[in-house]
Amino acid sequence: MRKVIFMDNKFIITIGRQFGSGGHDIGKKIADSFGIDFYDKELISLASKESGFSENVFEKADEAPSNSFLYSLVIGSNPMSSLFFRNDDLLTNDKLFSIQSKVIKNIARKNSCVIVGRCSDYILRDEENLTRIYFHADNDFRVKRIMELYNLSEKEAQNSITKADKKRNNYYNYYTGNEWTDLKNYDIIINTSKIGIDKSVKIVTDYIKMKN
After folding, report:
1. 166 — phi, psi (to 5°)?
2. What is the pLDDT of residues 17-27, one digit of tens each?
3. Could you count the other beta carbons within 10 Å of the beta carbon of residue 102?
4. Which comes out higher in pLDDT, residue 120 or 92?
5. How far apart are CA 210 and CA 129, in angstroms?
């Protein structure tokens, strides 16, 4: 049974995370502890509903910089797409980022929440009571975790980590103009390989309670 902590003030938590550091799981546990909404891949579904485009379009562009044009399914997957863009237009990652940013801002205006990735710390930088967190971990810890989670070999896990981190880093740098790993972008930085998932959750929840 989860312990729900009721808070009087609305607050927002954004999470940046190295692949394999446990950021997603920690964010979910934090949200459960406070009894607030949690958004990660859920943002893809919400952006799809907001725009009328297929979720597959957003999945292809998820946390990817604008280095290619997305022809796929712009018209074919959704006959209503022509109402948004002319047939001779291209749906770019930039346009998808703009749609998703609008969704993130709408979420943050309504209720307390935890939002993972997608430059949410930058998009919501002007919001009151925002706490920006970055989770990282030693490479061995991440490799072992990815091997177990996805049933991969050590080499496959290492390749996945390298590709995912590069993708997230390029995405963040492209849309914010800032360095993904710059400590100035965050209020809390935690090495999860040193203290584990549950203690990371406790550090953040204790901080939010003191802050509020």
Report:
1. -65, -40
2. 999 999 999 99
3. 15
4. 120
5. 12
